[in-house]
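Extended Data, panel c. Modelled sequence:
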Amino acid sequence: MKKGIHPETYRLVAFKDMSNEDVFITRSCATTKETLMVDGVEYPLVKVEISNTSHPFYTGKVKILDTAGRVDKFYQRYKSRQK
């Protein structure tokens, strides 16, 4: 591998899936202002909307996340085009 191409701030970070509150820890250089205690250790916290524990492809469940009413706006806009 080439030397000097990886970031210096690579550390353990807690990622929290906001749809199901699942937390997983992995190495990342993502910046964050929040922290989270996991098993007595404090980690920087990155909040994510969806992860492998909540994505329909991995779970096999269809779940519509509509945080801004976008699905309703779509249906209202195109309901006149229905057969």
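Residues 11-81 form one domain. This feature is highlighted in the accompanying rendering.
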